[in-house]
Amino acid sequence: MATRATWWSVGHVALKALGVLLLVPLLYLLAVTVGGTLTANADWREPEEGVTLFIRTNGVHTWIMAPAVTPEMDWRALAPAADIKEPRLAGNYIAFGFGNRDFYLNTPTWADLTFKTAFAAAIGGGPSLIHVDHETDPVEDAYTRRLVVSHEEYRRLVRYIRDGFQLDEAGHSMPLLGRGYGWSDVFYESVRAYNFVRTCNEWTGEALRTAGIRMGVWTPLSQSIMWRLEREENE
């Protein structure tokens, strides 16, 4: 009887553990759905004139593409062309992304992705990097959405992005020279911490919300961002 009771107890604990394992992803998906559906800055409307941005996705990660130079900000001082492998590729737009340091540096291609790295990036924390890519004349396509914001909204967006750069004692950004994915991009040290709440895509959503643009209250997935922008186009 003692043996049977022991096995029953072990099985009961195992079932509880399995229930918790199944419940956690379900709760996460529920939080993602609710966070993407609830709206911050609900009264915002896209102005007819202002600063033209582009939001790009690769299906997993999102970037904010901003003009290299406007009256509000000259990004060339913070992200100079000299920091990339081929300075001649510097264009009139700069794309900004945010992510886990280990994931960025150790996953140049999806073939390099390991379970350990993916798991740490999904639920862990740690230091982060800002990924900068220089672009020329971006256009809308299946992976890119055009977004016009007012000059005041852009000033707030600039502050959010700029304040995420770690600066040295001389006030200069800190590039990881030679550690980009290609010839036109580079990583910079960031002061913001990465965690399962502030994911790479939530950074994009947080930046847009801070600027005053209509966005979900929590946007941890690429779809959380792009779905909202597609709705804006259709309204």
Fold and architecture overview:
With 235 residues, the chain is an alpha+beta fold. It has one domain. The chain is 38% helix and 20% strand. It contains six helices and nine strands; from the N terminus they run αββββααββαββαβα. It has helices at 2-37, 101-106, 115-123, 151-163, 200-211, 222-234, and strands spanning 39-40, 51-57, 62-67, 93-100, 128-135, 144-149, 175-176, 185-189, 215-216. It has a seven-stranded antiparallel sheet with strand order 6-2-3-4-5-8-7. It has a two-stranded antiparallel sheet with strand order 1-9. Helix 4 (151-163) runs antiparallel to helix 5 (200-211). The radius of gyration is 21 Å and the shape is globular. The model has no long low-confidence stretch (mean pLDDT 84).
Give the arrangement of secondary structure elements.
Blueprint: H1 2-37, E1 39-40, E2 51-57, E3 62-67, E4 93-100, H2 101-106, H3 115-123, E5 128-135, E6 144-149, H4 151-163, E7 175-176, E8 185-189, H5 200-211, E9 215-216, H6 222-234
InterPro entries: CHP02117
Protein name: TIGR02117 family protein
Organism: Allosphingosinicella humi
